[in-house]
Amino acid sequence: MIAVRLPDLRTITSLLFAQNTFDRFPLYEASFLTRCSFSIDGYRNAEFFTEEENAAAAEEYTLWQDLKPLAYSIIKGKRLPLRFKVVLRAPKDVIRKLLAESDTAFVEEQVESLHMIFTYKAGELVCTTGSSFRVFTMDRSLDKLWDAWVLRFLDGNGIKTEEM
């Protein structure tokens, strides 16, 4: 797990809420505190969708691209939010790629989630990585690969980071 400060608030919020940089990431959850509090659970409610739509869904969580307009409508305005938190999960193809690159014994079914957590509070935006496994393990090799992948992804999208 790593935590990095994202000093260029304007760039990262534009990439997160207005551009397509994070669109393919499933949203685990998001919360916003503005004039009141808002909470979004990204879990796909299968009852809402047709059988065909459910069969075509690659993820059990709603993609950020589908909830981003709602999130943006919550935070836009003359005032900055008091705080927000957006938890994005690694897409399944990224998990598969990292598992193929690692020398770990993990298989995809054992990985619950690799995630990026964007937390804004008191004028500061921080990105924290994390992982969740369906089995107990002391092996952190996949965590290290995920941390490195996130740093490359941020850098590759022009997002400056500062160590904390």
Output the keywords.
single chain; 164 residues; globular
Q: How many structurally independent domains?
A: 1
Radius of gyration over C-alpha positions, nearest whole angstrom: 16 Å
Q: Tell me the strand percentage band.
A: 25-35%
Helix content: 25-40%
Instruction: State mean pLDDT (0 to 100 scale).
Output: 93
Number of helices: 5
Structural class: alpha+beta
**Which strands sit side by side, in order, in the main sheet?**
3-2-4-5-6-1-7
Give me the count of strands. 7
Low-confidence segments, given as residue ranges, are: none
Folded structure, characterized:
The two termini are 12 Å apart. By secondary structure, the protein is an alpha+beta fold. It has one domain. It is 32% helix and 27% strand. The chain has a 7-stranded antiparallel β-sheet. The protein is built from 5 helices and 7 strands; from the N terminus they run βαββααβαββαβ. The mean pLDDT is 93.
Provide the fold topology.
Layout: E1 3-5, H1 9-17, E2 27-33, E3 37-41, H2 51-56, H3 64-75, E4 83-89, H4 92-101, E5 111-121, E6 124-133, H5 141-156, E7 162-163
Antiparallel strand pairs: 1-6, 1-7, 2-3, 2-4, 4-5, 5-6
Q: What's the gist of this structure?
A:
The chain contains 5 helices and 7 strands, in the order E-H-E-E-H-H-E-H-E-E-H-E.
